[in-house]
Design goal:
The complex is a heterodimer of chains A (about 250) and B (about 1250). Chain A has about 250 residues and is mainly α. Chain A has one domain. In chain A, about 80% of the residues lie in helices and about 0% in strands. Chain B is of the alpha+beta class. Chain B is built from 35 helices and 43 strands. In chain B, the strands form eleven sheets. In chain B, strands 1, 2, 7, 8, 9, 10 and 11 form a seven-stranded mixed sheet that branches. A four-stranded antiparallel sheet of chain B has the order 12-43-42-41. Chain B has a four-stranded antiparallel sheet with strand order 13-14-15-16. In chain B, a hairpin with a 4-residue loop joins strand 29 (about 1100-1105) and strand 30 (about 1110-1115). Chain B is elongated. Chain B starts with a helix and ends with a helix. The chains are: A mainly alpha (about 250), B alpha+beta (about 1250). The interface between A and B is large, with 81 and 81 residues.
Chain lengths: ~250, ~1250
């Protein structure tokens, strides 16, 4: 970027310098510097865009997180209240409006953290970097949630083991990076801890029947969710806006 | 390892044979596959059609026993849901009550007040009924509290007790409340929801009959009130029910009632999908479609992307169908909700294999036969396909051992689906792919010439030969033949293409229409909502025959085998007169004529009364039970035969029960007006509906007109050539955004431009006529013209020099006369005389020409008008050539003086002098020092044409066909140096640092060194900082003696002519027709590597400062090399025909070929990311501005593409009249301007405008 500006300046200045003494030179120089000024202004605006790109990515991830949280919440609702959508939606609106927001924020953080970690570790993620794979990953994630919500398991142990196997399978199929695994694990632990804290402090409570099962599937869901959001974040980071590249030259 | 290797070989060989087979017999194989798909799907016919309607099953009442949980072998038609006890047994008591005989003194409220009042006594009767110590309390279904969301219904629906529903619930089953209720209708209607509702309303729930059949209305025509008392029993005690029935019948006999009482109906409800479940479902489907979209858009380099994408989707879908079909065939019935698990199945099976196959097949060498290509593609991917499949099977197997039944079932389906998917991939998709590839080759043959003349044409099937036209020979390896554009390709983003495709074919509308028709058909067929019954009832009601005209069969749904037609028929005939209601037969007749307003109501029982609940919404029972948090999904209820109760009330009773306010209600209207009123309401509704429909259609039409003003549906309107002066738009009516960019047109060449060179600040172009022009790359002003002297060689030496000098002013005999019209560069054209003057040692002209040098500053806009006006007067002052000669003589003296003080004497004699202020001349006056040297530079061989040109600093190096290397001063237009060491034509030049490398036609490579006698200091003003250019500056160069010496000549660098020469990073890379690439070191001209790997002549090479070396050949292959080791990094076949140009960025390689395709490859993995179809003949023009901005040329336009997405960012049209010209060459300058060469014109486009546009 500075190079480019320099070049702009040099090219706009050089004719002016050479036309020393020429009657129109001063005016020409004025014009040229005006042109250069407008050009550098344009570049400055582009630079602003560059800084907003991170925000934009975060916003996309936040939206995805909120949406996924809503969808998964609806998935978890028991069947028998399903005939009263207003009922279900009422509880959704009233009880815990902050849950989707929290999920969205977490998604944004995790999704931005993944590519950041990749670049810090110096091992760019090359495995299956395409949108189709990301879509597949999201679908499998929703599927895991679906399974945890709708299937009848014999006991919670079975539920936990199955979900753990599924989550590991998700990571193996779509990620396969150590950093992804570590971050997913960290996410799962932290999120479970936070959820536990919230529940123990009485801020949020499960309905009485599902306390056990929630504890058994929550970590797995958080792990696979972390991997999924990380996948999205990496993909978003990969397709950057093109004027960034213009600036980098 | 050996086992693995052997296995791998075997698999690969098997796939190879299979590929040959598939490509050889496409049609039989497709037929076979379709047949096997159909066979496997046949068992699906047995499965019920999707639909949410309940299904029914009828058993007799007499021998009823609660079905056991275990399936008991084959019990006739017993459905599989008929197991275990039902949720509830429903006993309904259907009450028909009427005040009879009707009295004219009665008010309308009497029609229903007293009949409704009787419900309380009936309820009492039912509640207190006891049969052998069993009361209703012990048998009935005990319900707890209502759902929390239904608090407002708490007072109405029963809680904590028997589920007993009747209209009495409106008044909490209390007679006194009913009696004190001033307005019954208001009480009933206050709970009705506003607006449109589909499910059962509270009125329906409590009355048990559809709202308008209750007769609770002021305008009731029949004056019969109908309602039911619904009792839900948890246990079935036949004796209790029978005694209740007989008791009620005994109390309230229905004489003319012959309802059947021997059948009970079991109704099974399917799972209903509520909105809370619908959202996740829709989400999964959206994700699925996104997945399919992103997958199939990677299909590339095939004839029909859509066709192959469709084939891929068909493969996956039919493999799923096959899997379900096979599982059903072998006895496994699907219990999972198909709609829910379907997306997951698709995702698990995936489209990856299909894409891998396609990619592998299209990346095989194009000159092979189709069969072999398919076979090679298959065999090269066989191992990975098998490995993937094995992995997936193992994962699914692990899933199977979770021992969760649902997951096990899912896994079973997935396994069968995977296997059948593999089968379909191998047979169906491969065959479709082979057909597609064959089609592409056919189309290719028809469209263009074969790859190259040098190689034998690839073997093609015989009949094709006759069709193809003899290919025109290509003139050289460099030039691309320009063909008339057969069609104008769409240059649109893919999204828009999809939208336009949809819009053009009206695909969405048609699919929706077909879907609707099919869905309606299914609805009618399964009849879930009792639609036909409802219609039949409507017809019966509206028909003049009244209640007698009910067709016998309509009451029975087809899935319901219980309705015995004969018995129904026997019931149907009109009820016979009974003794109890005296006026009945008379009333009957009266109502038939419809003329007697005083007709007494009569109560009749028809077959439609047998199962009143059929006339209700099919969600009646689910919603009733769901209020108590009992789901009926996947469960069933048993409905016992209805108990008919007929109540006849005398007018006295009715009058007695009147509430004081009842009489104040609506005045009594005659029956006739009510008739009319009901009719009117019907018509009103119809008219309203019609009106609404018309308004909707009009609205949509207006919207359509507003949103889609163009008639894109019609072909051929704007199809062909666009008119001149009009913005170009393609066949779909899409016109690219009007850009504010007005590209600078650089005109001046009289013939087509052949060579183009630039160093960022200056731009040199050379046309076929041999004229070289130097332009300012910033402003587009022409600085210098170096004419081709060969044209004038024959003329007398005295004249032509002068003429040359005044070319722009005397256009009549001037080949460069175009310049005269050019307003911007008259001064600079005058400079054209300079070289000639120098050669023939004629000082006057030399001097005369010097004032024109200020054209260097012509890039300032303010300067041009000044010069222009002065030159406008010029022709008048300069009329004859003789005068000009004379004038030259004057200048001769002046020139000699000028050696001492050049500025003084110059201006007065020369006409153009006033325009040039003395200050300018001062800087020019330094030139003559170098003059003698230039004279010594020999008169060149002017017949030869310029074959190659390079520009560094202010030196232009030109290589001529005669083998001469010339160095020109770009600003002054003077010949600085000339070297004639070689005799073979210079095909390519590279100018790096102070070295010039020239490749000659005979395959030799010459290294020259450019020496100056003086180091220079003003470099920073001229060259871009990144480049080490020849030490040169306009202020100094004329003083320097530049010599160009041949340092080394590599005689046999290549066996055949060198076609490409590139130099960067201290390396010189040459490519030749002899299929090899050689790398030389620039300093010592030492050959480092000879790179072999192409099977055709080299046509393009890319090397940059980062030592990336890529080469493309006539075989369509692209090789990436490691310059340090000389090893080949990757090798891909990307094009059909020559690779015409090649550019690398940090992450990708961009290549374009004679097939007009621009391919973008990942540099590290050499996987093709995507490709862009160019217009015919424009394939070679290509440039990269930054790592993500690609520029391509088209018909009179350049397009900017986003490299990351492959999306078209903007198209810039170069001029209104340039549409017919292809952009043949594209040069990206350092200041991000683009120079493109089309025909004899150049165009400068600045890229920052793209940036501004996107901001």
């Amino acid at each position: 970027m500075p190079k480019l500006e320099d070049r702009c300046w040099s090219c706009s200045c050089s004719p002016g310098m050479k036309s020393e003494g020429f009657p129109l030179a001063s005016r020409a120089r004025e014009v040229m510097s005006g042109v250069a000024g407008s050009v550098s202004e344009a570049f400055a605006s582009v630079r602003r865009l560059h800084s907003t790109n991170l925000v934009r990515r975060g916003l996309v991830l936040f939206t995805v997180g909120v949406f996924l949280a809503l969808v998964l919440y609806l998935l978890q609702i028991r069947k028998n209240v399903v005939l009263f959508p207003e009922e279900a939606l009422d509880t959704l609106y009233s009880s815990s409006w902050w849950i989707p927001l929290g999920c969205g924020t977490a998604a944004a953080v995790v999704g931005l953290l993944y590519p950041c970690l990749d670049s810090h570790l110096g091992e760019p993620h090359k495995f299956k970097r395409e949108w189709a794979s990301v879509m597949r990953c999201i679908a499998v994630f929703v599927g895991i949630n679906h399974a945890s919500a709708k299937l009848d398991f014999a006991n919670n142990m079975q539920l936990s083991l199955t979900l753990a196997a599924l989550s590991l399978g998700l990571w193996w199929t779509f990620d396969r990076s150590r950093s992804g695994f570590g971050l997913g694990l960290t996410t799962a632990l932290l999120a479970t801890l936070i959820a536990q804290l919230l529940v123990s402090n009485g801020i949020y409570q499960y309905t009485n029947t599902e306390v056990r099962s929630v504890r058994s599937w929550l970590p797995c869901i958080f792990f696979s969710g972390g991997v999924t959001v990380g996948n999205i974040g990496r993909q978003l980071a990969m397709v950057r806006l093109f004027f960034e590249f213009v600036l980098q030259q | 390892m050996t086992v693995r290797e052997r296995l791998r070989q075997n698999i690969s060989a098997a796939f190879y044979r299979h590929g040959l087979l598939c490509a050889s017999y496409p049609v039989p194989i497709i037929l076979f596959t379709s047949a096997s798909i159909l066979t496997c799907c046949y068992p699906l016919l047995k499965l019920p059609l999707p639909g949410t309607g309940p299904v029914e099953f009828t058993t007799g009442v007499k021998d009823y026993s609660v079905p056991s949980h275990e399936p008991q072998g084959d019990l006739g038609e017993r459905p599989d849901w008929y197991r275990g006890p039902p949720v509830a047994y429903i006993q309904q008591v259907l009450v028909k009550a009427a005040v009879s005989p009707w009295d004219s003194s009665l008010v309308p409220v009497d029609v229903f007040r007293s009949p409704l009042g009787r419900v309380f006594s009936l309820l009492e009767e039912i509640r207190n009924h006891v049969y052998t110590d069993r009361s209703l309390e012990t048998l009935c279904l005990q319900v707890t509290e209502l759902l929390p969301g239904l608090r407002r219904m708490q007072s109405i629906l029963p809680e904590h007790g028997c589920l007993l529903v009747s209209p009495g619930n409106y008044w909490q089953n209390r007679r006194d409340l009913f009696d004190s209720d001033p307005d019954i209708l208001k009480t009933v209607h206050q709970h009705e929801p506003k607006g449109i509702h589909t499910s059962a309303t509270l009125k329906d729930l409590l009355f048990g009959v559809p709202g308008k059949n209750t007769g609770v209305s002021l305008y009731s025509r029949k004056r019969v009130v109908t309602y039911t008392i619904t009792i839900a029993l948890s246990n079935y005690d036949s004796r209790f029910v029978a005694s209740l029935r007989s008791r009620l019948k005994q109390l309230h006999p229905s004489v003319n009632c012959t309802l059947r009482e021997d059948h009970m109906v079991h109704v099974h409800f399917k799972e209903e999908i509520g909105i809370a479940e619908l959202i996740p479902l829709v989400t999964t489907y959206i994700i699925l479609f996104a997945y399919i979209y992103f997958s199939t858009r990677k299909i590339d380099m095939v004839k029909s992307k859509w066709g192959l994408a469709l084939a891929a989707v068909v493969t996956v879908l039919s493999s799923l169908l096959m899997s379900v079909g096979l599982c059903t065939l072998f006895g496994l019935t699907p219990t999972l909700n198909g709609g829910e698990i379907f997306p997951y199945l698709v995702v698990v099976i995936g489209l990856e294999n299909v894409l891998v196959l396609t990619k592998s097949v299209v990346s095989t060498p194009v000159d092979l036969e189709v069969k072999l290509r398919i076979a090679q593609g298959l065999s090269s991917e066989s191992w990975s396909i098998m490995k993937n499949m094995a992995t997936e099977l193992v994962i699914i197997l692990i899933g199977y051992f979770t021992l969760v039944p649902a997951i096990q079932e899912f896994c079973l389906f997935a396994v069968v689906g995977l296997v059948s998917d593999f089968f379909l991939q191998m047979f169906f998709f491969t065959t479709v792919l082979s057909i597609d590839i064959r089609r592409m080759e056919l189309a290719d043959l028809n469209r263009r010439l074969p790859a190259e003349a040098g190689m034998p044409p690839p073997p093609k099937p015989g009949p094709l030969r006759t069709r193809e036209a003899p290919p025109p020979p290509r003139p050289s390896a460099h030039t691309i033949t320009l063909q008339a554009p057969a069609f104008r390709n769409l240059r649109l983003p893919k999204r828009l293409r999809v939208v336009y495709f949809l819009a053009r074919t009206r695909l969405a509308q048609r699919i929706i229409m077909v879907g609707t028709v099919i869905w309606i058909g299914i609805l009618v067929y399964t009849d879930p909502a009792g639609l036909r019954t409802y219609l039949a009832a409507q017809v019966a009601e509206q028909s003049p025959l009244g209640e007698a005209g009910l067709p016998p069969h309509l009451g029975v749904a087809p899935v319901f085998p219980g309705g015995d037609p004969t018995s129904t028929l026997s019931v149907l005939p009109a009820p016979e007169p009974t003794p109890l209601p005296e006026n009945q037969s008379q009333g009957h007749g009266a109502s038939r004529t419809g003329s007697a307003p005083m007709s007494s109501p009569q109560i009749s029982w028809g077959s439609e009364d047998e199962e009143v609940w059929r006339r209700l919404s099919f969600r009646y029972w689910p919603s009733l039970f769901s209020y108590y948090n009992i789901t009926l999904a996947k469960r069933y209820i048993s409905i016992l035969p209805v108990i008919p109760v007929t109540l006849h009330l005398s007018p006295q009773e009715a009058v007695e029960m009147r509430h004081p306010q009842d009489t104040q209600h609506a005045p009594r209207t005659s029956a006739k007006t009510t008739d009319i009123q009901t009719d009117l309401t019907l018509y009103k509704v119809a008219a309203l509906g019609l009106f609404a429909g018309v308004v909707l259609v009009l609205l949509l039409f207006c919207l359509y007109r507003v949103l889609c003003p163009r008639n894109y549906g019609q072909n051929g309107v704007q199809h062909g050539r666009r008119r001149r002066g009009e913005l170009p738009c393609d066949e779909y009516g899409y016109s690219p955004p009007v850009s504010e960019i007005s590209p600078l047109l650089l005109r001046g060449h009289s013939m087509d431009i052949e060579c183009l060179a630039s160093d960022g600040m200056l731009l040199a172009s050379c046309c076929l006529a041999g004229q070289i022009r130097v332009w300012d790359a910033q402003t587009g002003d022409c600085l210098t013209v170096i004419p081709n002297n060969g044209l004038r060689r024959s003329s007398s030496s005295g004249c032509w020099e002068h003429r040359d000098g005044w070319d722009p002013l005397t256009p009549t005999f001037d080949p460069d006369g175009l310049l005269g019209a050019e307003s911007r560069s008259p001064v600079s054209t005058a400079a054209a005389g300079a070289p000639d003057a120098s050669e023939y040692a004629e000082p006057p002209l030399r001097r005369r020409a010097t004032p024109s040098r200020p054209a260097l500053f012509g890039d300032q806009p303010d300067l041009t008008p000044l010069i222009d006006t002065n030159f406008g007067e010029l022709p008048s002052s300069l009329t004859a050539s003789a005068r000009g000669f004379d004038f030259g003589g004057l200048v001769e003296k002046a020139y000699k003086e000028h050696e001492v003080s050049p500025t003084v004497h110059f201006s007065p004699p020369t006409p153009p002098a006033p325009t040039a202020p003395p200050q300018r001349r001062r800087s020019l006056g330094d030139n003559p020092v170098a003059f003698p040297d230039r004279i010594s530079a020999s008169p060149g061989d002017w017949d030869s044409s310029v074959w190659s040109m390079e520009l560094r600093g202010n030196l232009i190096a030109t290589g001529r066909s005669s083998g001469k290397l010339e160095l020109w001063d770009a600003v002054e237009g003077s010949l600085r140096c000339c070297n004639e060491d070689g005799s073979s034509g210079i095909t390519a030049l590279a100018f790096l640092n102070n070295r010039i490398v020239a490749a000659r036609l005979n395959g030799s490579l010459d290294f020259f060194t450019v020496d100056t006698n003086k180091p220079l200091g003003l470099l920073q003003y001229r060259g871009p900082p990144g480049r080490g250019s020849v030490p040169s500056s306009p202020c100094y160069s004329s003083e320097d003696v530049i010599s160009c010496q041949l340092t080394r000549s590599v005689q046999c660098a290549h066996q055949k002519p060198i076609t490409v020469l590139r130099a960067a990073a201290g390396r010189v890379v040459t490519g030749s027709q002899d299929h090899t690439v050689r790398v030389y070191r620039l300093e010592d001209s030492c050959c480092l590597f000879t790179l072999q790997g192409h099977s055709g002549g080299i046509t393009s090479i890319y090397i940059d400062q980062t030592m990336v070396l890529a080469s493309g050949g006539q075989d369509g292959a692209i090789c990436l090399w490691d310059v340090l080791t000389g090893s080949r990094v990757s090798h891909v076949y990307g094009h059909r025909g020559d690779v015409t140009s090649l550019v690398c960025t940090n992450s990708c390689v961009i290549s374009s070929g004679l097939d007009d395709l621009i391919c973008i490859w990942d540099r590290s993995t050499s996987i093709k990311l995507y490709s862009i179809q160019q217009e015919v003949g424009c394939g070679a023009s290509l440039g990269v501005i930054s790592d993500s901005l690609l520029v391509t040329g088209g018909h009179g336009c350049v397009s900017f593409w986003d490299l990351n997405y492959g999306d078209l960012l903007q198209t810039v049209y170069l001029g209104q009249n340039s549409e017919g010209q292809h952009v043949r060459q594209l040069l990206v300058l350092d200041n991000a301007a683009i120079v493109c060469d089309f025909g004899s014109e150049l165009s400068l486009v600045y890229v920052p405008s793209v940036l501004e546009k996107l901001d």
